[in-house]
Amino acid sequence: MSKLPPYALLLATLCAVVAVVVAQAPTTIVACGTPALLAVLTSTRGRRTFARRLIATAPLLVVALLLRWLEHAPTRELLLPALRVASAVAWASCLSTWLAPPALHAALRSLGAPSAFVELIAHTRRFAIQLVATASDAWNAATLRAGTSSARATLGTVGQVAGVIVVRAFDRAECVAIAGALRGRDFAEETSLEESLAAPSQGFPR
Amino acid sequence: MSAIELFAPEIAYGHGAPVLSGVSLRVEVGEVVAVLGGNGVGKTALLRFIAGLLPRRGGRCSIAGVEVRSARRAVQQSVGLVVQDPNDQLLGTRVRDDVELGPRNLGMSKAERDERVERALATVGISALAEREIESLSLGERKRTSLAGVLAMAPRVLLLDEPTAGLDPDGERALCETLRRLAATGITQIVATHAIDLVPHFATRALLLADGGVIADGPCREVLQRIDLLERARLRRPWPVELWARALKERVSTVTMTMEEVLPCLTTASS
Description:
The complex is a heterodimer of chains A (206) and B (271).
Chain A: H1 6-22, H2 26-41, H3 44-56, H4 58-70, H5 75-98, H6 101-110, H7 115-143, H8 151-182, H9 185-190, H10 193-198
Helix pairs in contact in A: 1-2, 1-5, 1-6, 2-5, 3-5, 4-5, 6-7, 7-8
Chain B: E1 4-11, E2 20-27, E3 32-36, H1 43-50, E4 60-63, E5 66-67, H2 71-76, E6 79-82, H3 95-105, H4 110-123, H5 139-151, E7 157-161, H6 169-184, E8 188-193, H7 199-202, E9 205-210, E10 213-219, H8 220-223, H9 227-232, H10 239-248, H11 259-270
Parallel strand pairs in B: 3-8, 3-9, 6-7, 7-8
Antiparallel strand pairs in B: 1-2, 1-4, 4-5, 9-10
Helix pairs in contact in B: 3-4, 3-5, 4-5, 10-11
């Protein structure tokens, strides 16, 4: 797979994910997901990535299953969302095993994705990493304050850690906005760099 | 019995490469150890390892003779950890709520909780902030609140990660004073820091980390004058030690560690 150009790997993954989402038969979804699953399970890194992402999507699966259960849907219908999520996660894990973030961004650019979109993807990843670190730190701190000593305490800790994550997410978003503004983001939106440089200096650093 | 006995062939985050190797440490009850080293050298990893937050790769870490392999066991052995960024540690909406969190999780009665909270707030000098919203606190106040939250758990071993980072001089002084008072009550402390000038004010022993391991372990007075080791750890000597080494060494035999030790020597030297 590593011999294929990054954009081909990205395109193949996107096609596979779309197929997984639109397929209606469980066998088709399994058929679409199996190659990715096999590929991802062959390496230790792939297995870890897949496991981590599967755990991250667990709440999604629970909600999907709950909704189906409340609607008294047949078991077969409960299976479909679970298979779709697992297959899509397998493909996403494959992609991040094959391509490092810079290669993925390059692949997106070579497929004609707007640079703003690529930047959004890069920042989203960075944001997610920071939030995971925050969640981990907050959870550890709560654990060391007996936050998992009982079921009731654990439930409370889950809520508190979720609160911390939300608050920190807003904090960081605000910091990023301020940092962007102070580094000329708003200025760049109003006028291009060439125009700015061509204009008589009004304190703009050249 | 030692407060902490640790032998770790490897300390690593998750399944990654080891951050530290071959760490061996024995800390006595009431001892205050400063863990020193540049950024990314493994100070935080060492604290987390002691708190049972990192996976064990052989070796052992025992607190008061009981092996600690998980954070739950660390809680049972009264280990407290104050993380570097208080925003990651403060889980309540008001100061009192946050400090009360640990005692409540331990299932204490209201009276016991109140007593613990009042004592912890008084120890760090923030009793007046008890009803304040967390969001309205300054960084220094947040740091104190996070320390109070851990103290409310009545720890026997206190691990502090960069407790002085971001504090103003007044905050630094107050923190050093608090750490000294806690040591006097018999609480063992391990303080990760690179605030080298402050170390002699609260620590009696220094552990120097560099190149993936411990390169020096001994009394502050000995370790903090070893310029070769400090430079290897991307640090420098505290200014009173530097002053002694450059200007007073010929006339004063004992190394000076603090302003209080330097002043009489300067007076003697000038006369």
